[in-house]
# Entry
Amino acid sequence: MNKFLKTAISLGFLVTSSYALNINEAVEIAIKNNQDLVNKNIEVSQSLDKKSIATSSFLPKLDVSYGYSSSDKLFNTIYNDTATLSTKISYNLFNGFKDKANFDIADLNSKATQYYFESLKFDTILNVKKAYVNYLNTLNTKETLQVQYELFKKQYDDSKAKYEQGLLAKNDLLQVQVNMSNALQNFTSAKANVDIAKFELSNILGGYDLSAQNIEELSIEDLASFDTTNKSIENRSELKALDLSKISLEKNNQILNGSFLPRVDGSFSHNNYYENSPFGKYDSGVDGQSIASVSLTWNLFNGNSDNTQKIINKKEIVKLNNEITKTKLALNLQLQSAKSNYEVASVNHETAKLSLEQAKENYNIVKSRFDEGVSSSTDLIDANYLLTQAKQNFYKAYFDKYISIETLKRVLEEN
# Structure
């Protein structure tokens, strides 16, 4: 581990706990509990149900009917009360391939819904990591400002002692006191920001209770270099979903083409006849009757609505092609922006390391000179500010690089 990280840990800037929630656990909780993901998962389940409904078109239909009639005058029967019990099995033999196209559409829509779920999952993972890092950043800012306040307080105590000995002007003492008060105000504000950031992280985790939960710091391995060469957005879930939607529209035209073909249905039914009591047979010479039939229907004209709908679908396909092109352009822009941000963040991170080491060394030198009476309180105040700023810049660069890597993973849909 690098020297600057060891120093940061020794000062208490990096908070760890054997019972702390780590970032991977936070992602798992969000995937399970995040309301948007839960709802999208329900949509995936519904799409599978619709696919199951489409499958039922390939199965026969079974109907049972019972009819009862009562008459006060007899005409063609010798019984006043008659009943008929019928059982009928029917099956569509040919439907212009509509059922097959409907099943294919349901299957395509189910897969597209799954792809949209995957896209939302990758978005949620990135948002969890951003919220997680934001919390760590506010926490480190709070601790940095706490150290700044404690340094100012120590400087104030030392300056007060020198003032009482007549070695320091009152104006210099007041200046240190003002800076100490400002540092306390900033530290108090930072503590409130930590609470807010923790609530924001809790919300994206689906309301997971973090009130008594420690949050584990990131490890240095999380900033391993990321190879951005030969990367593309061709595997993005959104593009796959749009491609399936396009095929689905083409299948709709197959359904419309099927409207120009005949429909063939077959059926077999058996009827039983009863008199008086609900199931008392009567002697009509026909105890039961079985009927098998095949019917063919062919719509020859329907007001040209099918042709008009095909034209509408073709226009929708053109619109969808434009949407696919637009999405590819947007995703390529995302990729290029993510690559550029990663390169900038990597450089900033290296620069921030050096700046932090230099600021620490500068503070130690100025502090020694101040204790020896060589440097003024103003010099020590400036060194304190420079050290605080260097710490904040380091953590910002550290987290910015981490988020730039995670953003690249999200754009490329890599784990």
